Amino acid sequence: MEQVPERSRRNGLVVLIQNNSIHSNKRDMIIKSVRGISPVLGKDCFIAENATIVGEVTMGDQCSVWFNAVVRGDVHFIKMGNKVNVQDGAVIHCTYLKSPTTIGNNVSIGHNAIVHGCTIKDNVLVGMGSIIMDDCVVESNSIIAAGAVVTKGTHVEANSIYAGMPAKKIKDISPELSSGEIDRIANNYVKYSSWFKEE
Predict the structure, then answer these.
(1) pTM of the model
(2) pLDDT band of 199, cuts 50, 70, 90
């Protein structure tokens, strides 16, 4: 898929936008370059007016970054796939020169979650208020329960639910739970963001 990014200036800040795809009610969000590197957003994304996205951030299509969320690619890169929603108050960051953050497709980052210097693969639900630390790998079709703390270097098995402090596997995910929670929430956030694009 070939796309020619457009360089756009908003309140003196710079962002690369794929095919005029950014949607927001106001132009007060902070989207800015750091050390000459600007965020690149995919098609049909929604960015809330008080969200913050800075530095080396690459975002796929149909993503959304909600109110007071921060995606800070200043010390390493952050790469997000398609249909990723970063809910209100969530923080995505990295560790300088050591641990970037990579997020796959169809991923929901719950309210006030912290995702730091880790790899999250496809079809994952990161619960509200949970923390995923450096060098963790969260395999596909997994759920990190609300309030869980996934400590540095943890490998979360595919098709599983991890909960607690520190987070441990508590059970496998059924196909019904995967479609009923992981897919449902990711799809709902595409729908929710469409409401704001209409304003």
Answers:
(1) 0.87
(2) low
**C-alpha Rg value of the chain to the nearest Å:** 16
Bridging pattern class, strands 160-163 and 168-172: antiparallel
Using CA atoms, how far residue 198 sits from 24, 55, 191, 192, in Å, is 9, 28, 11, 11
Q: What is d(CA 5, CA 185) in angstroms, rounded to the nearest whole number?
A: 29
Question: β-strands 5-10, 13-18: how paired?
Answer: antiparallel
Partners of residue 101 on adjacent β-strands: 78
Model confidence pLDDT, tens digit, residues 62-90: 999 999 999 999 999 999 999 999 999 99
Q: Which residue has the tokens 């970037």?
A: 100
Signed CA dihedral, 133, 186, 180, 112: sign only? positive
Joined together, the tokens standing for residue 143 give: 């759920």
Picking from 110, 116, 127, 107, the residue whose alpha carbon sits closest to that of residue 187 is 107
Amino acid 182 reads I
Give the whole-angstrom CA distance, residue 57 versus residue 77. 6
- Separation between Cα atoms, residue 159 and residue 174, nearest integer Å: 8
Q: Which of 60, 11, 46 is nearest to 198 (CA)?
A: 46
Q: Residue 59: phi, psi to the nearest 5? A: -125, 135
Fold topology of 5-191: UDP N-Acetylglucosamine Acyltransferase; domain 1 (2.160.10)
